[in-house]
Write a structure and sequence with these properties.
Blueprint (H helix, E strand, L loop, with lengths): L13 H11 L4 E7 L2 E6 H17 L7 E5 L4 H12 L3 E5 L5 H11 L3 E4 L2 H9 L9 E4 L13 E3 H9 L3 H13 L5 E6 L9 E5 H15 L6 E3 L7 H14 L2 E4 L6 H8 L3 E3 L2 H16 L3 H22 L6 H22 L6 E4 L6 H9 L4 E3 L1 E3 L4 E5 L12 E2 L4 E4 L4 E5 L6 E2 L3 H7 L6 E9 L6 E6 L4 E2 L5 E2 L1 H9 L4 E7 L6 E7 L1 H10 L7 H5 L2 H19 L9 E6 L19 H7 L1 H8 L4 E9 L5 E9 L1 E2 L14
Parallel strand pairs: 1-11, 3-4, 3-5, 5-6, 6-7, 10-11, 12-13, 13-14, 26-27
Antiparallel strand pairs: 1-2, 8-9, 9-20, 15-16, 16-17, 18-19, 19-21, 21-22, 23-24, 25-26, 27-30, 28-29
Length: 657
């Protein structure tokens, strides 16, 4: 390392920043975790000791410089410590999606040649043991939760805490070796390897250096004024680059507290208890929360509904302006303050968002109505645009320049350019080192000057300098008559409706567009209950005539909005069907970050696509599915195919084509 921990600016590795935090924020909370209903807390000094013991324990079982160490489990302080401990001994942590099936885990562990694996519990240990024969490099599994592990063969299994105890009483030789490895580290060393979601094929291992993570963390923290007194709820997958940059990179740079919920099911309740000041969630989360709020209000009494609708109408008018510091009349300010007392404040408290100072959403486009709803409540919600290869941040929205139709301006240190085909390119200190074992893809993605091809089509507004994303460049095409085909844009407009969970548009090279729809079971289920519609399964609800009628109304509304868009009017949906199953990552139809694998869907459901274009009114289909235990089965159904209304430009009502 060679730097003094008294100067954070000279810390060029995460272990060096950890040492800085131990010295300067030693008594401040670094990690919190809820277990068995009780919040536990560790200061930076306590976390530093835990990590030190673990890193020495790793040396005691033979971890070498350059080893790849996989981490599988939910967000827990002990697993974040495992990543930092690996870095202290110059090993490279490789977090893996905890809901991955055995074959997906096998690919990652075999590809990175992992010698050691941290597995949270018996479930994750069993997954690794099931594929051990495919992993010739694997030497040991370290488990965190000992429940159910008593009778397992311990030849290659180690208890996490026993390894820490070994580190605590490590001989001077190992202490000296750890110190030597710490001194040898630099910003150019690999910090982590994170795998892409794999929308078009096998996931790629993205190698990120200490410089990538630390410089990006510093710039993004300074952009939003993040401090050691902030806190974040860590609930998104640890294998996702966003969680890594928030819960490892930014947390270690600023010294703020990382809070881990008890489990996925308690996340919303734990969010309310923690009340973080810094929060990230994908659009689907914000959409789901808003759906729940609206459902509760429909069941509320007349007075409550009247107050809510009156004050929320006012908030939509002036809330965003007040948040951005714009001029608002005294009467409007007074009414907004009353709204805080009667509506906004209690609602924010219920949602666990009362203390949010900076909030972000990314990954997909968020509906402007949804985005503006949260900002009208006083939540400083912004959009960012990023990639694993960029260490997340490519663009951010500055305070006072937050809009629903752009993803902001280049983050500090980032350069943007748009090529002749409309594809977005960037370069920055956060640009990845390489794709592991894949020089061809590295060369195709990053040129000699450091410019990275995002694969997204977009443009930069001349006046504001804000970036607007249209679609994935490879998905943007032409229809048979030459009009633009941009499926993601239309899919996102459809998903703005809370009853539509997923949409997949088809039409490249065709004379018209068609779509698959996935309904949101919770939202449509509540709607069905209020309309006295009985159902016993997702499949039955998805095929109900009244559900088809509701979805058709949504599609017709989207078609009307597209009709006035000269560039995208050809993307109106002519015909659609509601799928009999939810698209699922276990079935290969989605990535683990819930991105549509378009090519997989086109191949898997070819007969359904042919039926949409063949004029059929219904089609029988049988589909293979994967259950939670990894076993295979099949479901069959006869699916209805409906026509939508094609609108004309400028028409207030759509007319059938």
């Amino acid at each position: 390392m060679g730097e003094s921990i008294s100067d954070k600016g000279q810390c060029d590795t995460l272990p060096a920043l950890l040492a800085y935090n131990v010295k300067n924020f030693g008594n401040q909370p670094a990690y919190r975790e809820k277990e068995y209903g009780i919040w536990q807390s560790w200061t930076w000094a306590e976390a530093g000791a835990e990590i030190r013991n673990l890193s020495l324990g790793l040396l005691s079982i033979g971890v070498k410089t350059g080893d790849y160490i996989a981490i599988i489990g939910r967000n827990r302080p002990h697993l974040y410590w495992a990543m930092l401990a690996a870095q202290e001994v110059r090993a490279i942590p490789v977090p893996v999606y905890q809901d991955s099936v055995a074959d997906e885990i096998a690919y990652v562990l075999e590809h990175c040649e992992a010698r050691f694996v941290f597995a949270e519990n018996q479930e994750q240990v069993d997954k690794v043991l099931d594929i051990k024969d495919k992993l010739p490099n694997l030497e040991a599994i370290l488990f965190l939760d000992p429940r159910g592990m008593r009778k397992y063969d311990r030849a290659h299994l180690h208890d996490y805490r026993e390894i820490q105890l070994e580190g605590q009483k490590a001989p001077a030789k190992l202490v000296k070796e750890r110190d030597k490895r710490l001194q040898e580290q630099s910003g150019k060393d690999s910090c982590a390897m994170l795998y892409t979601s794999g929308t078009t094929g096998r996931p790629k291992g993205v190698v990120l250096s200490n410089d990538n993570i630390i410089k990006t963390s510093q710039a993004s923290c300074e952009f939003d004024g993040l401090k050691s007194t902030d806190s974040v709820l860590a609930y998104l997958p640890m294998a996702w680059v966003g969680d890594f940059i928030f819960s490892i990179g930014q947390a270690t740079w600023t010294g703020f507290c990382v809070c881990c919920p008890e489990n996925t099911e308690t996340m919303q309740h734990d969010l309310k208890e923690i009340g973080p000041s810094y929060f990230f969630a994908p659009p689907r989360y914000f959409e789901g929360v808003l759906t729940d709020v609206m459902i509760r209000m429909e069941d509320a009494g007349f007075v409550q509904r009247h107050l809510f609708n009156s004050f929320m109408g006012h908030a939509q008018k002036v809330g965003g302006a007040i948040l951005d510091g714009q001029a608002v009349s005294p009467m409007d300010k007074l009414k907004y303050q009353l709204g805080k007392i009667f509506v906004y404040g209690p609602l924010l408290n219920t949602l666990g968002m009362s203390n949010i100072r900076v909030g972000y959403t990314a990954g997909e486009a968020i509906g402007p109505e949804i985005f503006n709803f949260y900002r009208s409540l006083g939540i400083n919600l912004k959009q960012l645009y990023g990639q694993t290869e960029a260490s997340v941040f490519i663009t951010q929205q500055p305070d006072g320049q937050v809009r629903s139709d752009t993803v902001g301006v280049p983050s500090p240190g980032v350069e943007l350019r748009i090529d002749d085909k409309g594809e977005v390119f960037y370069r920055s200190p956060g640009v990845f080192v390489e794709y592991f074992k894949n020089p061809e893809s590295t060369k195709d993605t990053k040129d000699k000057e450091g410019w990275v091809a995002t694969g997204d089509a977009g443009f930069i507004e001349n006046e504001s300098g804000h970036l607007r994303i249209i679609d994935r460049a490879k998905d943007v095409g032409k229809m048979k008559d030459g009009r633009l085909f941009a499926p993601k844009y239309v899919e996102n407009k459809l998903k703005f409706f809370p009853t539509i969970l997923e949409a997949v548009l088809f039409g490249a090279g065709m004379d018209r567009c068609t779509a698959f729809i996935n309904i949101d079971l919770q939202a449509v289920g509540n709607w069905a209950e209020r309309h006295n519609i009985a159902y016993s399964s997702y499949q039955e609800l998805a095929g109900h005539p009244e559900v088809y009628g509701m979805v058709k109304d949504h599609i017709d509304e989207v078609n009307r909005s597209l009709a006035d868009d000269e560039m995208l009017s050809g993307c109106q949906v002519h015909r659609f069907l509601i799928l009999h199953k939810e698209l699922d990552a276990d079935d290969g139809e989605l990535t683990r970050t819930r991105k549509v694998r378009r090519r997989v869907i086109e191949e898997k459901f070819k007969e359904l696509i042919d039926a949409l274009y063949g004029g059929k009114g219904e089609i029988f289909t049988k589909t293979e599915v994967t259950y939670e235990d990894g076993s295979k089965g099949a479901i069959s159904a006869t699916l209805r195919i409906e026509d939508a209304v094609i609108a004309k430009a400028g028409a207030s009502q759509g007319e059938a084509a």
